[in-house]
Amino acid sequence: MYISEKEIEVRYAETDQMGVVYHANYVIWLEIGRTQLIQDLGFTYAGLEADGYISPVTNVNINYLSSVKYGETVTVRTWIESHGKLRTTYGYEILHKDGTIASKATSEHVVVKKDNFRPIALKKINPEWDSKYTEIAKENN
């Protein structure tokens, strides 16, 4: 199973008055993990945008299992859960330093043309990237 990992130091600004990470900040961490996975595979999201495409989130699901607090370092683990013609689902785990799972998540994305938001298959704009995602999704299932 191909999994990308990215460590994140919890910053004070990400927490509430109790020193616990505010729930919406997990979505930012998912983006950091997804960006790391893309880079680990030799691609860049910035490159996709430069070519006139974006990949909006169509669904996000986060299960919060235990709180993360200021001063901790967490690891975001990211993988390709599934990859189809138009939709890619990423899987995530956010781990405490001791390896226990703080949260599990998925996010679904489509690739669209930046100028008109029409969906387009990744295979049409970057066959190599599409092939890599397809390969990883098969290995992970």
Automatic annotation (TrEMBL):
Family in the record: Belongs to the 4-hydroxybenzoyl-CoA thioesterase family.
Gene3D superfamilies linked to this entry: Hotdog Thioesterase
Record keywords: Hydrolase
Uppermost EC category: hydrolase
Listed EC numbers: 3.1.2.-
Name by which UniProt lists this protein: Thioesterase family protein
Coiled-coil spans in chain: none
Source organism, top-level taxon: Bacteria
tRNA processing among keywords: no
Alphabetical list of CDD domains matching this protein: 4HBT (cd00586)
Keyword Hydrolase included in the entry's annotation: yes
Organism: Psychrobacillus mangrovi
Gene Ontology molecular functions: hydrolase activity
